[in-house]
Amino acid sequence: MVKVGVAGYGVIGQRLADGVARQKDMELVGVADVAPTLPVRALAEKGMPYKLFTAVPEKRNLLDDVGIPVSGTLEELVQEVDIMLDATNAGVGAKNKEIYQKYNTKAVFQGGEKNNVADVFFHGYANYEKGIGADYLKLTSCNTTGLIRAIDAIDRAVGVVKTAITIIRRVADPGDYHRGLTNALQVAEAPNHQALDLMTIMPHVDATGILIHTPVTHGHIITPVVTTKKKMHKEELLEIFKAHPRIRVVRLADGFLGNASLFKYARDLGHPRGDMYEIAVWEETIVNSGDDIMFAINIPQEAVVIPENMDAIRAALKMQTSRDEGVAKTNEYLGMKARG
Amino acid sequence: MVKVGVAGYGVIGQRLADGVARQKDMELVGVADVAPTLPVRALAEKGMPYKLFTAVPEKRNLLDDVGIPVSGTLEELVQEVDIMLDATNAGVGAKNKEIYQKYNTKAVFQGGEKNNVADVFFHGYANYEKGIGADYLKLTSCNTTGLIRAIDAIDRAVGVVKTAITIIRRVADPGDYHRGLTNALQVAEAPNHQALDLMTIMPHVDATGILIHTPVTHGHIITPVVTTKKKMHKEELLEIFKAHPRIRVVRLADGFLGNASLFKYARDLGHPRGDMYEIAVWEETIVNSGDDIMFAINIPQEAVVIPENMDAIRAALKMQTSRDEGVAKTNEYLGMKARG
Amino acid sequence: MVKVGVAGYGVIGQRLADGVARQKDMELVGVADVAPTLPVRALAEKGMPYKLFTAVPEKRNLLDDVGIPVSGTLEELVQEVDIMLDATNAGVGAKNKEIYQKYNTKAVFQGGEKNNVADVFFHGYANYEKGIGADYLKLTSCNTTGLIRAIDAIDRAVGVVKTAITIIRRVADPGDYHRGLTNALQVAEAPNHQALDLMTIMPHVDATGILIHTPVTHGHIITPVVTTKKKMHKEELLEIFKAHPRIRVVRLADGFLGNASLFKYARDLGHPRGDMYEIAVWEETIVNSGDDIMFAINIPQEAVVIPENMDAIRAALKMQTSRDEGVAKTNEYLGMKARG
Amino acid sequence: MVKVGVAGYGVIGQRLADGVARQKDMELVGVADVAPTLPVRALAEKGMPYKLFTAVPEKRNLLDDVGIPVSGTLEELVQEVDIMLDATNAGVGAKNKEIYQKYNTKAVFQGGEKNNVADVFFHGYANYEKGIGADYLKLTSCNTTGLIRAIDAIDRAVGVVKTAITIIRRVADPGDYHRGLTNALQVAEAPNHQALDLMTIMPHVDATGILIHTPVTHGHIITPVVTTKKKMHKEELLEIFKAHPRIRVVRLADGFLGNASLFKYARDLGHPRGDMYEIAVWEETIVNSGDDIMFAINIPQEAVVIPENMDAIRAALKMQTSRDEGVAKTNEYLGMKARG
User: Fold this and answer.
1) pLDDT band for position C326 (cuts 50, 70, 90)
2) Has this prediction a pTM greater than 0.80?
3) Which of A66, B140, C269, C307 has its CA 20 to 30 A from that of C95?
4) What is the pLDDT of residue C180?
5) Is residue C340 scored above 90 in pLDDT?
6) ipTM surpassing 0.90
């Protein structure tokens, strides 16, 4: 049983904790945060299924004052664990790294941190090997993680030369009042960082693209145009995607009309928090553009990176030393399997 | 163990089934629907925790063709149960009633049906007694159910003379692509039906109001101005609401910034589907207007009527013959308790 | 011809300039701003119908560099005019006041400034007399301005005792990317400032209320519950509102389905910028709550304060020394008239 | 002076009428519609700048009853004009065609009609020649019209082989309460009809693509990936687009942050109805994907087709018998010119 801690108990941190708790070969020692945010209040209302550590000891009174039990400090948590998953706000992870280094504790950072915080920029399916034994890993962001699942699967089948992607981004998470967009599509400077990040993980692919923010809260949609070494037809692509445990092929004809259908379906499935780990591809969107192929992916932004974070723990702690074994364990414990 | 069936496995029907399954003194015999909608597909993907009956036998092939197991017909289900919860689309319930009558099976209809489908227009807290032993009950709609919880609580404390309510209505449920509103507030003719419905349940109260549709999916907000027999101050109102197991008092200062915060919080609590049964009242919105009192309520439209439906079963089947005992059992099994 | 300058050429400043330009007894000397914002770029593309002055001389190069002609500095503009309309961002007006005072130039500030920037908190219809000859006036904000038009009209007819208002607020203006709200209703602490501001202008009225932000860009909707000295019926209220040049009575039955219909209609009318100066009241929303009366108002937030600003100039410069004459001139030049 | 009539006075019909009224070599005889919709009411409130004809004589009372002056019937209008612009709801145009044929009146149909209603599927810039002297023309829809402007410009410069387009579609027009989408992105079956339509106009180009509906009202955004015969770099593309009178190159750095900025800017420019005829291309979105080029276009859906409709009149009535002369006249009268 490897011991894991989580720093930052927000949208991602909560889900990382839940994900670790589902791995039968990992023990979640606790989570760290600063203030009685809604997730921390919910943790208390649930009866503290996870121990909470204060990330800023001098602000511990914020938690004490509202009667939320505190089990110690982040620094104490770091000493108890083999690896930390850091899901704090961008920039905080770099500071926390000093604590991790002080105690020789490995750590996995999230997409918001700068690349130089880590030794390896990691994706479970695309470069598991690079993470094996690494001390500091950084995961790709939600869009990039999901996109690479698809591009890597195609690449392993027929080789990917280049891709031009349009990202139709949800602008805020459900319940987020700090960011927002009202009746507007916001254009970002191209190329988007997801294309650049993809090239860091898959340097042999030429990637670029445009990102547009849209006023919705559930799921980015990405429409990559992919140039392959050998022309790929719709049926072949479907076969590859259906065989992938982290890709769900859905059909408009079955009622999956858009990103909100997938969120609804995850709730109807009874998934905790209404989360979905898989990206989805709409069967009816797959088309050839000459010898290129194009399709639409749904990225469930709140939960999509959880499996790859579990993979990162497995690689860093050498729990499994091959990609296939590593991702298979994660998939097993998170209940993901090929549906093809 | 009373036996219960559910007709219509949509937004409300799914939650009714889940609610019945949580009542230790009830047995959910099965649910009925017609087509392989997303909820029905999710039921199958979960391994059929509930038996499915076809509501339209001649369309059974719709389910068979996609491999969803069918346990019989609605008519068969009706014969096996003591009471049906009918959550079909508006108008279908009236037709289904013929089947219920044929087998002398009691039934509870939802807010969308016309009042004359039922003998009693029912609300667990406001008129439980009227439902005792009744054959056909109709529940109030989501807004009215939640609103009456608050108005009834005030009424029992100091007496309510009249109320003028503004309903700020979410226009569609999450995942609903058939209704929608984009960058617009839509005004409805006054008085709204919720005020009229409230008067049917609480005939001694003079109610009226205006309803505005807004482009959001999580939770109606209602701002009633209530004229009481005896002036009520904020602290008294808070005390009453905190003592009510189906009302949750929340604070802006704690991070509950709007309707989306409550949906998020329910997800963070790990509630199935991210549902919340309680209405919420924001502490910082309670103000006196002269001798009247005004406040803002959140109505979680997908789940709010579930407890009162359980109450209706209890009343109709005389499982508990007093309001206090009836609602207490529902509250116990659904995990709702006073937080005051 | 009185001479007028405008400081701040944003959403309000542009419309103030247009409004002044339409007053046959006023001369718009120019507008002041700092940077080549979209409104300033549009002014240039239109061929500079208004002269532009730089508000921050040391940043004049921002304008020069993109070839936008600058006619001088704000300080020079202030010396050329009889009165300044200050529509700068909140807080800047207080600083600008030093310049206005230096040259004994009167000024009108907008709702975002603190009350103490001015000698008089002004509303054209409700307290014109207080503004006569005043040096520094502050206008009410958009919601309050529109609301007072309605409440003042009722007050003059039968006397208003108190009002409890629900404000359903649009969260951002069209084209605003800096504020936003996505799939959420945001609750504000009660009482809202609009109720408090109303009492500053109409101290004999007891006002309170709740404000909810909604993710739309066109027009706030307010639903006041008004307690009058003498009960008022729908037909009487309609008569009063139809006789008011700044109130437009509309009907759902005619196709005015919500706030977006009014914006559309203003565009269809060919109004510059698609603006509407009148508030609207939906006929079908007027209901009695006991002896109180309730209705729904639309507030076109971008343009509603323009008429009252023109009134403020008239009062401050004693162009008309009675309310009726003052507002009549504004109405005439802006094309507003009773439709009753 | 050629004589023009407009059938259907809705979103497009109003703008067609305004467009014709601005052509110095055309006379707008009148517009036809059925009911007192908001546009028709606005026409009346403006004092009937255009004569109104009833499209359904037996329903003329709908207009008479509310005092809107009617100048005759659609059939009478058709006899008075050289050409009709038909902007009625999809399917009505096909019926109206019988009237047009009866009186040998030419007609231009809009994108919603089926292709077989017309002899020529027309685009002013891409195939003006085909429309010369034609009796019945059909215009491309808003997205296709704007998209073809860009693709045709590239094609004439270096030759276009294929294009894979992502259309991020606004789901409803401002003020539209009949369609809507709330917190959801809706995926359409690929390839989208715009790609197919493009190939009808430009048969030598291989086009496909995916369309996603988004909950906004102002301006579609399209991100085409274009494979050219000769690689094109950003600077060349900018030069071509800047030289095109119907394409506006804008920059994020100048404050054009998305589709809502362009609508705002058109309002700030004082354009009637806040309309913009030009498509816009964001300079910072232009990127090469290998030898392909990709960029983001804004399509102002309400007004974009107006210029090409004017072109269609010119071609059909042989007012100008070359593309360059035809589009130049339209551009002159509508105030569009190259900004390069």
Assistant:
1) very high
2) yes
3) C307
4) 87
5) no
6) yes
Instruction: Tell whether D340 is covered by a domain.
Output: no
Q: What is the pLDDT of residues C141-189, one digit of tens each?
A: 999 999 999 999 999 999 999 999 999 999 999 999 988 899 999 999 9
- Please write the tens of the pLDDT for every residue from A126-160: 999 999 999 999 999 999 999 999 999 999 999 99
Is B339 inside a domain boundary? Answer: no
B165 and B285 share one domain: yes
Q: Domain of D218: which CATH number?
A: 3.30.360.10
pLDDT digits (tens, 9 = 90+) for A172-181: 999 999 988 9
Q: Which CATH number belongs to the domain containing residue B135 in this structure?
A: 3.40.50.720
Which residue has 């449920």 as its token pair? B173
Q: Does residue D312 sit in the same domain as residue D218?
A: no
Q: Are residues A263 and A159 in the same domain?
A: yes
Q: Tell if the CB–CB gap between C172 and A186 is shorter than 8 Å.
A: no
Domain span holding position B221: 142-299
Do D93 and D118 share a domain, yes or no? Answer: yes
CB within 8 Å of C241: residues ≥ 6 apart:
C150, C153, C247, C249, C281, C340
- Which residues from B are below 8 Å from A174, CB to CB? 218, 260, 263-264, 267
**C207 token code pair:** 């006002």
Q: Are residues B201 and B88 in the same domain?
A: no
Neighboring chains of B (3 or more beta-carbon pairs < 8 A): A, C, D
Q: Could you tell me if C104 lies within 8 Å of chain A, comparing CB atoms?
A: no
| Average pLDDT value over all residues in chain D | 97
Distance CA C118, CA C108 (A): 8
Residues 6+ apart with CB under 8 A from A194: A141, A143, A144, A147, A165, A167, A209, A211
Could you give the number of structural domains in chain A?
2
Give strand ranges (E) for D204-290. Answer: 206-214, 220-228, 247-250, 279-282, 287-289
Query: Does a structural domain hold residue D44?
Result: yes
C-alpha distance from C158 to closest chain A C-alpha (Å): 40
A322, A131 Cβ separation under 8 angstroms: no
Q: Let me know if residue B340 belongs to a domain.
A: no
Instruction: Single out the catalytic residue among D26, D142, D222, D249.
Output: D142
From B12, B17, B52, B142, active-site residue: B142
Q: Which of residues 120-179 of A touch B (CB under 8 A)?
A: 174-177
Pull the structure tokens for residue C18: 């247009």
